[in-house]
Amino acid sequence: MHASHIYAIIIGSDFKKEGIDFFTPDDFAQQLGYMNRPKGYHIPAHKHRVLTRTLSQTQEVLVVKSGKVKVSFFDEEGVFFEAAIISKGDVILLAYGGHGFEMLEDSEMIEIKQGPYLYEDDKVLLKTVVK
């Protein structure tokens, strides 16, 4: 949380809780949850309705498969305010503002975000210095 906005949610690889828990507010464009269910637990077969949603920004989720990554966070004006280190097994939801990455080790990540992705039309490069 910075200046009353949630910029990111990081779930460490050691997080554990019984049941189901969602980390995101209901109005986030990307929902991030955690499930811990016992053997034999059954989730009924289902599908999701076709609904039209309007998105005003892209939110992305990264799952670190291996390595160590420094994530730098920037406010809406491109000013750096904080950094965090994520590593194997960690999950991060990037929800607001700007972000940059430095691979501290050889790293593999899986990225999940809303589509369709618009390449250059989807990003604004920040002219700032990472601390």
Report on this model:
By secondary structure, this protein is mainly beta. It contains no helices and nine strands. It has strands at residues 8-11, 19-22, 33-36, 60-66, 68-74, 80-87, 91-94, 98-103, 108-113. The strands form three sheets. It has a four-stranded antiparallel sheet with strand order 1-7-4-9, with no helix packed on it. Strands 6-5-8 form a three-stranded antiparallel sheet, with no helix packed on it. Strands 2-3 form a two-stranded antiparallel ribbon. The chain is globular. The protein starts with 7 loop residues before the first strand and ends in an 18-residue tail after the last strand.
Features of the shown structure:
three-stranded antiparallel beta sheet, four-stranded antiparallel beta sheet, mainly beta, 0% helix, 9 strands, 131 residues, 38% strand
Helix-strand layout with pairing:
Blueprint (H helix, E strand, L loop, with lengths): L7 E4 L7 E4 L10 E4 L23 E7 L1 E7 L5 E8 L3 E4 L3 E6 L4 E6 L18
Antiparallel strand pairs: 1-7, 2-3, 4-7, 4-9, 5-6, 5-8
Structure at a glance:
This protein has 131 residues and is mostly beta strands. 0% of the residues lie in helices and 38% in strands. A hairpin with a 5-residue loop joins β5 (68-74) and β6 (80-87).
Sheet with most strands: strand arrangement: 1-7-4-9
Poorly predicted regions are none
Give the amount of beta strand, in percent. Answer: 35-45%
Number of strands: 9
The Rg value, from CA coordinates, equals 16 Å
Structural class: mainly beta
Tally of contiguous helical segments:
0
Order of helices and strands: EEEEEEEEE
Estimate the global geometry from the Cα principal axes. globular
Helix content: under 10%
Sketch the major β-sheet. Answer: 4 strands, antiparallel
pLDDT average, as an integer? 91
CA distance, first residue to last residue: 19 Å
